[in-house]
Amino acid sequence: MATKNVTSKGVEISERVVAINRVSKVVKGGKRFKFSVLVVVGDNDHQVGMGLGKAREISEAVRKGIEKAKKNLVDLRKVGNTIPHPVIANFGAARVMLKPAAPGTGVIAGAVVRAIMELGGVKDVLTKVIGRTSNPINVAYATLEAVKALRTPDEILRLRGKDRKEA
Fold first, then answer.
1. CA triple 82-15-136, angle to 5 deg
2. Per-residue confidence at 134, pLDDT binned at 50, 70, 90?
3. Alpha-carbon 128 to chain mean position
4. CA-CA distance, 118 to 107, in Å (whole number)?
5. How many CA atoms lie within 13 A of 127 on its CB side?
6. Which pTM was predicted?
7. Model pLDDT, residue 160
8. Tens-digit pLDDT profile for residues 80-130
9. How many Cβ atoms sit within 10 Å of the Cβ of residue 106?
10. CA-CA distance, 34 to 91, in Å (whole number)?
């Protein structure tokens, strides 16, 4: 369920609903249901974000999730169509491993990690959720932690105070 809309900066953003969770609260008259929706947004080039929207109706929860995800966009650093180096990140009990892949491999990932990688513009990557959880929210947060930890070779050289010729 991916749709496109244009932000104020003129960038076209795609969004994808990754998980819908129905939460119930028992009250005097019966049960009250609310929905928690995990939404991933990205520009299919190098920016990706994730938001969690909660409301009584799914459509309202999705709208809130999209708003939060747009505020939490992070840069996904790439080398060609893949990521620059292997990385492992944790969030709660979730542990996610991302590895660069050869051209033509495709996105080998579960639903949550696949949505983040595809909306971030990555075409070739190998991933694995190693942790003791299949909670999509924690897996999404762990994937974003891994994305934030990525560094391109040029960034690493700049941080070390060297240029291309020295390396």
1. 75
2. confident
3. 14
4. 7
5. 32
6. 0.89
7. 87
8. 999 999 999 999 999 999 999 999 999 999 999 999 999 999 999 999 999
9. 14
10. 25
Please provide the DSSP assignment of 119-146 as one string. HTT--SEEEEE-SS---HHHHHHHHHHH
- Phi and psi at 67, nearest 5°, equal -60, -45
CB of 136 closer than 8 Å to CB of 112:
yes
pLDDT tens-place string over residues 152-166: 888 888 888 887 776
The tokens describing 149, both together, are: 């930890």
Burial (0-12, 13-18, 19+ Cβ within 10 Å), 40: buried
Structure token pair of residue 99? 């590895």
- Angle, nearest 10°, between helix axes 111-119 and 136-149? 40
Q: Which two tokens stand for residue 115?
A: 């949505």
Beta-sheet strands, E only, within 7-93: 12-27, 30-42, 47-55, 74-75, 87-91
Q: 10 in helix, strand or coil?
A: coil
* pLDDT: which is higher, 133 or 71: 71
